[in-house]
Amino acid sequence: MMDAVTVALLVIAALVFPGLLFLFVLSMLTEWWERKIVARAQARMGPSYVGPVGVLQPFADFIKLLSVKEEIRQKFATPGVAKAFAFAAIGALSATLLMLPLSPVRLAASYDIIVLSYICCVWVPFAVAVMGMSFPNPFTGAGVSRFLTLYAVCEPAFFAAILVPVALTTNVVGTPLPYSVLFTAQYSWKLWLNPATAVVMIIALGAAAVATQAKAMAHPFNIPEAEQELIAGHMTEFSGQILALNNLIHDADIAVSALLITYFFLGGPYPFPHLSVPGVILMIVKYVAVVTVVSIIKASFGRFRIEQGVAVLVKYSLIPAVIALLAAMFLSAYPVLAAGA
Predict the structure, then answer these.
(1) Which residues, at least 6 apart from 42, have a Cβ–Cβ distance to it below 8 Å?
(2) What is the tens place of the pLDDT at every residue in 259-283?
(3) Could you tell me the residue ranges of all domains in the chain?
């Protein structure tokens, strides 16, 4: 049984930091940085009017959609279902942050990587697909079909990639809880000190980066929302509050994916202590670097066709992730080889 103080801390963690409020702010700032980088790459200014250097523009856009813009409804739409699944997806993404070291109340258990993968790699795309199908439309149906086709490859690839540092941390570095998100985030940086595990980590990091690009539906993987072909794909009928919630899910998914890469592959603030000033600065630098790479790739490529996108994901994300995972399993079976490298 948890005492009153623990329950209070858990509620604060879920609602404020690093839960809903923190995720909302982080998602908005991530969107602002991404828009700025893409704009600069294309010789534009990007967000510039609301707040210093336009930093509050994403907040203003969200509030405008949520409270000002009209929510357009059609005869056979079920907006209540769309909103319910949107809230569920946002809650799921917030829950993942409680499993990371930045949470004051850290939820950790053996094999909790399965829980994280279910939340991020299954529940979130499922919720977005249901939101799209809540507004029946030929363009919506085609967009959801492309969305699910893309995610059927990128989500397994992302899971396989993040499983690499989890397996190596458990079996090579050694942790009290096997296959734990928390302990992987705390000790994965040690894998870069070993030449054998570092090579495997490099392959898995590249696979995770490509999968994240697809999860963000950023160029060249913005196939489900191809405006010239499908108007806006699965988002064709979204407006007002539902469009605001969809955009928040999109930004939050990018933020959580970037955080997982920052912790699992780049070590978060480590080797500095988590709450130290150098640790916080290093953590921010690594996170911004991950988002910057995604933004630069987005600004540098045109859109693939669906078959091209799937082929690229299989070639540059799924296959390398599986190869890295097999190598991690081999090193896990023979940790003496990794230790002696």
Answers:
(1) 299
(2) 999 999 998 898 888 778 898 999 9
(3) 4-339
